[in-house]
Each structure stands twice: as structure tokens, then as C-alpha cells.
């Protein structure tokens, strides 16, 4: 199958960023472990997302775990992922690329939520 026959978008870009909450798993080291920090979801795909927040992960390796909480439609979603890259975005703001580590059930939920969100908002970028 070539790219021209792809029926689903690679990435959903939010024209208006969606509020989200970022959480370091309770077993993590560093400030903020187990607590939620406000952020915004910039884009989202079935395999990952881009988020922006005041949370400074002091990103040094590709094994930083992160839990992302957000609502596309009616349901609050909660997915765990691995931070793949990060940098300072502005004064006190950081942007991160996160690879989502989804179970088959979570992938179904996300696909369904994205389909519903796309139908109601029309926001996608192939």
C-alpha cells in the first residue's frame, strides 16, 4: 500500500491546543513524581503526541516515562508513553515528543476517540 492509498491520517494537529495533564509515574525520581502538571496537547497520532508544559523533565535519556491525561470528547483518556525528545520552548515552557505505549484495548479506544473527535471538529492533517 502506497502513501496515496492511506485512508487514515498520520497525525491529528490541534488548531486549538487541547488542555492536558502530564504526570510522572509515582516510582519516578525527581520533582513532581506522582503529581499532575497542566499542559497542552499540540498534536496526536495513534503512536504518539507532542505536548507543551511548564514541567521540566531535565530530559537526558530516552527512557523517561510520562502519563498523559486529556479529553478529546466526553471521556477522560489516560495513556502512558516514553519521552523521545524534549527542549525548552520558551521561558519556563518545554515541549516534548512522546511515543505512546498502548495496549490493543487502548489503541482501540484512542482510534474511536480520534474518529469521533475528527467528525465533530474536522481538525486533521494527513
Automatic annotation (TrEMBL):
Lineage: Bacteria, Bacillati, Bacillota, Bacilli, Bacillales
Domain of life according to the entry: Bacteria
InterPro entries on file: PilZ_domain
Gene source species: Paenibacillus sophorae
Protein name from the UniProt record: PilZ domain-containing protein
PilZ domain boundaries: 31-111
Gene Ontology MF annotations: cyclic-di-GMP binding
